[in-house]
Every structure is written in C-alpha cells, then in structure tokens.
Design goal:
Number of strands: 10
Structural class: alpha+beta
Shape: globular
Largest sheet: 6 strands, mixed
CATH topology of the largest domain: Ribosomal Protein S5, domain 2
Number of domains: 2
Helix content: 25-40%
CATH architecture of the largest domain: 2-Layer Sandwich
Number of helices: 10
Order of helices and strands: EEEHEHHEEEHHHHHEEHEH
Distance between the termini: 8 Å
Strand content: 15-25%
CATH class of the largest domain: Alpha Beta
C-alpha cells in the first residue's frame, strides 16, 4: 500500500550570513522553524532487479519529473547507499506557495525518503548498517541534496550552521500562529548572494571576521533558548498545540518573547533583497503592524525570499494580518509553527 507523507514548510526565524569562503560557499548561522503548512507526497516502492526506476508526478506542472527534482535525488542516493534497487513512484501534491524561502523542495526530498523507508521497511531490517549508522548516513545524504534538507530530518526549532546543513535540535518553542506572505515577485538567490558579497567588500567583512560573527550569533541563540523555553511539564497534543486550556497556540506570554531574541534577531538577506525589491520591505511592515494591538511577535523575510512571515500570539491577530495582506493584494497563508513531537507525530498519513 502506498505511503502518504506530510512535507512541511520551514521559515528562518533569523539568518546570519558570512563573507564568501574560498570554496565559493557562505557560512551561515540560522534558526529554522517548521510549520504546519505542508505538501503531501505519496510514495510506493517495490524491490526489483537492477536498474532502479524512479517516476515522479505532480498536480503542479512546474515540478520537475526527472533527476532535477530533490525528491528524485534523495531517493536515488538512499537506494545507492543501501545497495538496493526498486521501482519507486512519487506523487507530489503541491499546496505550499512556490516562492522561495520556505524549503518546499528540500522538505519534499525528506518526505520522499521517509516514504521510501516505510515502503521498503528499511528501519526494520536487522542489519548493522540500518540499525547503527543509517540515521547518520541519511543526514549526510540529505546535505548532499541541499543545504537546508537536513533540518527536515529533525523538525521543530533547529539551529543550522556552516552552509546550513550542520543541524542541531533546539528547545522547541510553544506553537505560535504564523502568517506566510507569498508575493508575486521572485527573488534570485544567486543574485542576492552576489549583492551580499558586494556589501561585505564595502563594509570590510572578511571570511575570517565572519567566523567570529557567526560563532557569537550561534552562542547567542543557544543562550537565549537555554532558560526561556519550558521543559517537561507541558506536552503537545496530536494537533501540535500545547495544552494551555485556551483556544490559542501557546500561552499568553510567548516563549519567543521570553528568549529576548525578538529585540535583535534579523535576516541578513533583508539588507540586500529589500534594496532590490522595496515592495518586500512594505510587506514586512504590513506583517509587523508595529504599535498596534495586533502587532506581530516577530516578522521577517524567510531565507532569501520572496516569502515573508509574521508570528502572532493569537489567531485573531494572525487573521488581522491576513486581512491587511489581502487588502494590499498579497497572497496570505494562515498556519502555525509545529514543534518536533508534533512534526514527527503528524508526518505519516498512511
């Protein structure tokens, strides 16, 4: 029977970027956060003699159906690593906005892997490779597919370092209401990095200086979360909402606020992307609604954009943000953040 898997979106609560390195990449320090908003992947896999066949279909014609697809790459690498061959069929039901910054393709890759593992009973095979080293190997394979793929093998609130592929689970925040803005404008990530490189030269930020900057930022993230996020007593239900006895995604005082990071957390890409696309800065202003009763706990560009988000204490505040965006002609998606327990508890649908 085919396996259906949720493929959750992510946002970057904050993103620090270093100067370009000798290898052409940029070091990062980022806080990822998974959302309830998701695509659905249906995976069927049957062991077969060589060669492996992978077939991908989708309700969205823009989704590649060949080896350019991240789900294809992930499945092909996993089968090769495990020395298995199979006929694999993957259907991708796209629900996430196509704008960059939400990790949709990377999440699809992990959802395809989870579906493949269930279909072929990989985790249940009594071999040292699967039992002992497969969890570590799958993280390595995920990093080969894309820098933000490994975060989806953890879920919840995740610290990302190096290129973003070095991931560490952070204490989970209580789920918060989230509004994702999906403007029609597109952002070129390579161009955003090139503009960032120009900014680094202008401001004298070197790769060496970046190392200190990003280490300090990662320590600040860890320190902020260490004492501000409650542990142990409160458990998330199947919906991912902590049992607070109210119709809210979280308590009256948000743990995000208690961390103190909302006063200083930022996305470095905003410094160059907003200059390229001033309309995105205006959308952030609409999401933030600073000085109003419906003000966001935090609003930001996600990744390099063009998607932006706002986090809110109550559903009413989030719905007000959706209404403001719709008045401005910007597509809006109402969702919530999802913690690690709920992320894995909700992932498999069949």
């Amino acid at each position: 029977m085919p396996t259906t898997v949720r493929s959750h979106a992510k946002i970057n609560l904050g993103l620090g970027i270093g100067a370009p390195r000798a290898d052409g990449f940029h070091a990062l320090a980022t806080l990822y956060q998974t959302l309830e908003l998701h695509d659905r992947l249906t995976v069927s896999a049957t062991p077969t003699p060589p060669p492996t066949e992978i077939r991908i279909t989708s309700n969205d014609r823009r989704v590649p159906s060949d080896s350019r697809n991240t789900a294809w790459k992930m499945v092909a690498l996993a089968l090769q690593e495990l020395d298995l061959t199979a006929v694999v069929e993957i259907h991708i039901e796209k629900n996430l906005p196509v704008q960059g910054g939400l990790g949709a393709g990377s999440a699809n890759a992990v959802a395809a892997l989870i579906g493949l593992e269930k279909e072929l009973e990989i985790a249940g095979q009594d071999t040292p490779i699967q039992k002992v080293t497969w969890p570590a190997r799958r993280l390595e394979l995920a990093a080969r597919v894309g820098s933000d793929v490994p975060l989806f093998l953890i879920g919840g609130t995740v610290l990302g370092l190096d290129r973003g592929q070095e991931v560490y689970p952070m204490p989970d925040l209580e789920p918060a209401w989230c509004v994702v803005a999906a403007p029609s404008v597109g952002v070129s990530t390579p161009l955003a990095f090139r503009e960032w490189d120009v900014l680094c030269v202008r401001e004298g930020l070197t790769a060496e200086a970046s190392t200190g900057k990003l280490k300090e930022l990662s320590r600040a993230y860890a320190s902020a979360f260490a004492g501000a996020v409650p542990r142990g007593d409160r458990q998330a239900g199947s919906s991912g909402v902590l049992t607070a006895g109210r119709d809210l995604a979280g308590p009256q005082e948000s743990a995000l606020v208690r961390t103190g990071i909302t006063s200083w957390i930022q996305n470095d890409f905003e410094r160059v992307v907003f200059a390229q696309h001033p309309s995105l800065a205006e959308i952030k202003r609409i999401l933030a609604a600073a000085g109003t009763p419906e003000a966001a706990l935090h609003a930001s560009l996600s990744g390099s954009g063009s998607a932006l988000f706002g986090l809110y204490l109550t559903r009413r505040d989030a719905e007000a943000a959706c209404a403001r965006l719709q008045t401005a002609g910007v597509a809006a998606f109402l969702t919530r953040t999802v913690d690690r327990q709920a992320y894995w508890g909700q992932m498999l649908l069949t």
